[in-house]
Amino acid sequence: MNELDIDYVRSQFPAFAEPALQGQAFFENAGGSYTCRQVIDRLFRFYTQRKVQPYGAFEASRLGGQEMDEARMRMAALLGVAADELSFGPSTTQNTYVLAQAFAGMMQPGGAIVVTDQDHEANSGPWRRLAERGIEIREWKLDPESGHLELDALEDLLDENVRLVCFPHCSNVVGETNPVTQITALAHAAGAFVCVDGVSYAPHGFADVGSLGPDIYLFSAYKTYGPHQGLMVIRRALAELLPNQGHFFNADALYKRFTPAGPDHAQIAACAGMADYIDALHTHHGGAQGTEAAARANGVHDLMRQHETRLLQPLLDAVKSRNSVRLIGPDRAENRAPTVALALNRPAAEVATALAERRIMAGGGDFYAVRALEALGVDLDKGVLRLSFTHYTSREEIEALLNALDDVL
C-alpha cells in the first residue's frame, strides 16, 4: 500500500461521472464531501426494499434492522471501539447539544469545562451555554498569529474543578492537527474527561479513537463520503456515568442513551457503505486479507494523508508569499489537513464567485468559526476564502485551482 490509485478512488464516486459536474473542480469539501457509490447503493436499497419499521418479524423489517446494526458494528470496529460505544444522531451539532445536557445533569455548579476559541461553533457553543447553569467555562486561547494551541496554556487552566476538556482534532479554518493523545493525557492526569471534535479531521482518514484515548469523539458522515448523520463515540466508563438522555426504557442500551429522537433508519444503514469503501481501498491497494478493521482503516488513512500532503504543499507555497494574502495556520503540509483558509484584502465571497466563474467550487465566509477568526484578527465582513480538498482530488485539479488563483488574486 505505497501510493493511492487516484483513478480507482475517483471511480468509486458517481459525482466524477456526472455530466453536470464535468469540468469543475471541487474545493469546498470541508463543508461536505461527495458521496461514495457504496453509500448511495445502500441508501437506495434501503429506501426501495427496507423502508419499513425495522427489527420486526417480517423479512423487510428484519433486514432493515440488520443493516442498521451492521453499520454501527462495522464503523465502531474501524474506529477501534466497542460497537455499543458508537451512537448515531442527526448531526454533530445536535449530538454535542445532547452531550452538553447530559454533562449539565452530572456536574455541580462550580465545576469547570475547558473550551477553545479555535473551534467551529458546534463544539463550543453548547458547552459555553452551560455557564447559565452555574458551570464555569474556561477558554483555551489560540495564538493570535499562528492559530496554534499551546499545551502550556492548557496546563494553566487545569485543576481539580475541571471535569471536561473540549477541543478540535483540527480546526476548520486553522487546519493544524492537534496532538490528541498528548492533550488527552494532560486532561486525564488532572481528572478531566476529553471531548474531541473530529469533524474537520475525519474526512482525511478515520481516527483510531481507541488508541488516541479521548472519552468522546464526534464527526459527521456527510463529510466522510456518507449520508447526513453525526457519529458519536462515548467510551463506556463515561457513558455509564452520564445521565440517560433517551427514552427511560432504553437506558440500559449504551448506544441509545444519547439518542433522544428516533433515529434515521435509512441513513444509519447507509453508513455501512463508508466501511465498504474503506475495505475496497484496502483490498485494491494490496492490503492483507484478514486484517483487523482498525488496522485496515489506519492503512487507508495513511494512503489518504500521503496523497493529500503531496498535493497540499504546492498550494501552500503558492499562497504564503503573496502580499495580499494571509495564510491561516501552518505553511507546511505534514501536520495539517488540506483545509486552507486565506484572509484577503477584499470580501472572500466575491473571490469565491470569481473562482466559480473559472469552474472552481470554493467558499467564502466565516464557516461558523467566528470566535477563531476574531481571535486571529480577521475582518469578519471580509471573512476568509476556504480551499479544502480530500484524497479524491487530483493533481490536475490542483493545477486548475492554482491557475484560477493567479487570475483572481
Automatic annotation (TrEMBL):
UniProt-listed InterPro entries: Aminotrans_V_dom, PyrdxlP-dep_Trfase, PyrdxlP-dep_Trfase_major, PyrdxlP-dep_Trfase_small
Domain Aminotransferase class V: residue ranges: 26-401
Domain of life: Bacteria
GO MF term set: transaminase activity
Transmembrane portions of the chain: none
Entry keyword Transferase: yes
Xref: Gene3D superfamilies: Aspartate Aminotransferase, domain 1, Type I PLP-dependent aspartate aminotransferase-like (Major domain)
Pfam families in the record: Aminotran_5
Signal peptide: none
SUPFAM superfamilies, sorted: PLP-dependent transferases
Keywords, sorted A to Z: Aminotransferase, Pyridoxal phosphate, Transferase
Keyword set includes Transferase: yes
Name by which UniProt lists this protein: Aminotransferase class V-fold PLP-dependent enzyme
Species: Sulfitobacter aestuarii
Organism lineage: Bacteria, Pseudomonadati, Pseudomonadota, Alphaproteobacteria, Rhodobacterales
